[in-house]
């Protein structure tokens, strides 16, 4: 079943996105030599912490993590490519392998997804190419003494995202997920780069966009409210728009209500397992997080739901169990169609 069918599936049921990749990688207690592997053993710069590189140097670990999430009930697994742009990989002096990072990561996720799709033909699994925000922002100066300065340009971001998307698509990604958007201008560069690439390829691929409300102000880091964020990306036909990271499910809920009310696309959410404690750890258990997620489901706020920082396969299993009990959010068009059908029945019975 191809990615084009995901639109129809989303009308019928809530799809479950996987959980945190970084949280799972931490459990393996990897050291510098593990990140380097044989290929990069002589690389002159430190590589520990470059989780995306593990798709090349420790592919079995990444494959195993994907399988754990799929076994927990995830319908969509994200590629291990959150930092796989030339801009982000510049920190490790590995810009030249960015296409390979994305291609190999997508290939790993696709192999795992296909394995589970074959086991359960009535539950197709999809691969979302994860496209992170990079470590630079196009809207805000990193220098408080020079507010007009930018560490990156729109054109540089566009080229970086375009290259990342090419690797993800070539590697087999079914969808592209522009996530953890703290600066909508960065996201717009990603969308522009992807559109340009798709025009070149004469192809289409469903695109998800997920923003990040950074704190109780209800705004992204670049200052937009949830509604303003939605309007800023509304010119692009999207599979879904949603929110992830920074906040736990309870804190995310009011902003999801805004998206659910205003968006003509499907709506997604993958919150953190609560807020981090003083040691930077996430304390919410699967049941604690599940109780909060269930409120989204009862209200009919989402079509896609999963987890971000601090979440594990146990969290995703609980979310999957809950999602199966509820109907997905209906878009405005679906509601209008349903209302017209009801009106037609009433008139027919008069």
Kindly describe this structure:
- This protein has 350 residues and is α/β, with parallel strands linked by helices.
- The chain has a single domain, classed as Homocysteine-binding-like domain (TIM Barrel), CATH 3.20.20.330.
- It is 46% helix and 12% strand.
- It contains 14 helices and 8 strands.
- An 8-stranded parallel sheet has the order 1-8-7-6-5-4-3-2.
- Helix 11 links the parallel strand 6 and strand 7.
- Helix 5 packs parallel to helix 7.
- The longest helix is centred in the N-terminal third of the chain and has 22 residues.
- The chain is globular, with a radius of gyration of 20 Å.
- The termini are far apart.
- About 1% of the residues have low confidence.
Question: What's the gist of this structure?
Answer:
With 350 residues, the chain is of the alpha/beta class. Helices cover 46% and strands 12% of the residues.
Strand content: 5-15%
Strand order of the biggest β-sheet = 1-8-7-6-5-4-3-2
Give the SSE order as H and E letters.
Answer: HEHHHHEHHEHEHEHEHEHEHH
Total count of domains: 1
Write down the CATH class. Answer: Alpha Beta
CATH fold type: TIM Barrel
Q: What's the tally of helices?
A: 14
- In terms of per-residue confidence, which ranges show pLDDT below 50 for 5 or more consecutive residues? 339-343
Distance between the termini: 43 Å
Helix content: 40-55%
Q: Which architecture per CATH?
A: Alpha-Beta Barrel
Shape label: globular
For CATH, the homologous superfamily is named as Homocysteine-binding-like domain
Number of strands: 8
Write down the Rg. Answer: 20 Å
Instruction: Report the sheet with the most strands, covering strand number, pairing sense and barrel closure.
Output: 8 strands, parallel
Determine the structural class based on helices, strands and strand pairing: alpha/beta
InterPro entries: BHMT-like, HCY_dom, HCY_dom_sf, Met_Synthase/Corrinoid
Pfam families: S-methyl_trans
Organism: Agaribacillus aureus
Cofactor: Zn(2+)
């Amino acid at each position: 079943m191809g990615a084009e069918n995901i639109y129809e599936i989303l009308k019928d049921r809530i799809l479950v996105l996987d959980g945190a990749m970084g949280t799972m990688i931490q459990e393996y207690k990897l050291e510098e030599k593990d990140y380097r592997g044989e290929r990069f053993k002589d690389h002159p710069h430190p590589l520990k912490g470059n989780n995306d590189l593990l798709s090349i140097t420790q592919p079995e670990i990444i494959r195993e993590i994907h399988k754990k999430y799929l076994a927990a009930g995830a319908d969509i697994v994200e590629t291990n490519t959150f930092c796989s742009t030339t801009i982000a990989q510049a920190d490790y002096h590995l810009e030249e392998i960015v296409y390979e990072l994305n291609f190999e990561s997508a290939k790993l996720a696709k192999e795992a997804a296909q394995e589970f799709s074959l086991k359960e033909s009535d539950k197709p699994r999809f691969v979302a190419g994860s496209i992170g925000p990079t470590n630079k922002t196009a809207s805000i100066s990193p220098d408080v003494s020079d507010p007009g300065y930018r560490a990156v340009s729109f054109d540089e971001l566009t080229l970086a995202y375009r290259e990342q998307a090419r690797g993800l698509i070539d590697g087999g990604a079914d969808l592209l997920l522009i996530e953890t958007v703290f600066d909508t201008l960065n996201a717009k560069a990603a969308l522009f780069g992807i559109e340009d690439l798709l025009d070149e390829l004469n192809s289409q691929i469903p695109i998800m966009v997920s923003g990040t409300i950074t704190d109780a102000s209800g705004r992204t880091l670049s200052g937009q409210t949830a509604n303003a964020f939605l309007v800023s990306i509304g010119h692009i036909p999207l599979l879904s728009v949603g929110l992830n990271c920074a906040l736990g499910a309870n804190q995310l809920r009011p902003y999801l209500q805004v998206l659910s009310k205003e968006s003509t696309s499907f709506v997604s959410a993958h919150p953190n397992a609560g807020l981090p404690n003083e040691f930077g750890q996430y304390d919410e258990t699967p049941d604690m997080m599940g109780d909060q997620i269930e409120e989204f489901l009862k209200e009919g706020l989402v079509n896609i739901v999963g987890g971000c920082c601090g979440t594990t396969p146990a969290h995703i299993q609980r979310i999957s169990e809950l999602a199966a009990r509820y109907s997905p959010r209906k878009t405005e068009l679906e509601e209008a169609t349903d209302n017209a059908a009801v009106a037609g029945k009433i008139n027919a019975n008069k």
